Fold this sequence. Notes:
Layout: H1 11-24, E1 33-34, E2 43-46, E3 51-54, H2 62-75, E4 82-86, E5 91-94, H3 102-107, H4 112-129, H5 142-155, H6 162-178, E6 184-187, E7 196-198, E8 208-210, E9 217-220, H7 222-229, H8 238-250, H9 257-284, H10 295-306, H11 312-320
Antiparallel strand pairs: 1-2, 2-3, 3-5, 4-5, 6-9, 7-8
Amino acid sequence: MKTNVSSALPRDEREVLREAFLEREGFAGVPLSPLPADCSKRRYFRLPSMLLMDAPPSHESTVSFQVMADFLRDAGLTVPCIYASDHENGFLLVEDLGELTFRKAIERGLSETMLYGEVIQSLIHLHQKVTDNTITLSSFNLNLFLSGTEVYLDWYGLPLSPQAKEDFQGLWRDAYHQQPKMPHSIVMRDVMVDNLMWLPSRTGFQRCGFIDFQDGVWGPISYDLVSHLQDGRRDISPQFAKDMVELYLKAFPELNAQDFWTSYALWGAQLSTRLLGLFHRLAKRDGKPQYTVHLPRVKATLEHNLSHPSLRPIRGWFQSVGL
């Protein structure tokens, strides 16, 4: 169903589109409470019984969100139900999973071990159940891998020579090709504490609600553990992260643990490099300097990942430019 209004409109005219969508769905005049914005172009508004997602089609895909939500729900994970859609104009009415993010839950004194452990159990369940790419997700291929690292070149601000940039790209390309073979499954990509909701009325790992997965791809099972345990916005101890990985590995005794840790280091280094560039881009281009407070944490995480022997050439490159 469509509201038959063009989606390529300025923000004030998106208000008109929102109102038309809500009126069509029987919510004309219902008050909207805007939720805090994140680093994406999506906006959320709280209605009395659900959320309105406003995702401009030029930047976001509500189709991808719905496809992924339906698939993840069928696989047994907790994700928002979708009640109504206008994909042409970028609107969804979705289930409201509440306000208790994992960050808030930890701040209120809930056990970090319990919360993180339920995410690990969710990923174990997902990776055991979803082993075939039945919805033909795009692969986390070399181009996507390199585009993540190149955000660093584009936005970090180092005065690099053409040769240094070429070397950087070549080293990452080699690392991608040399990575150990890992089983593949859905990669949600943004399994971070601010994108996870705690639902204490449910049981087991279904108390963990996932709300950010529309950019999901098909890739190595190590990635979402990296996304969760190397969150650029929150510190956890290296030992705690190791314990969580070991919990995961116990569920997959056939996995070569050494290969898994090699993969974990590679994708962790790739993510940290991307975040260094992304947080600078948010500050310089998008007027969101608050993200630069996380840069020291991300640098430290990158250095830790680059200490893995398989990444010695990339570590040498970063040392040569003064990281």
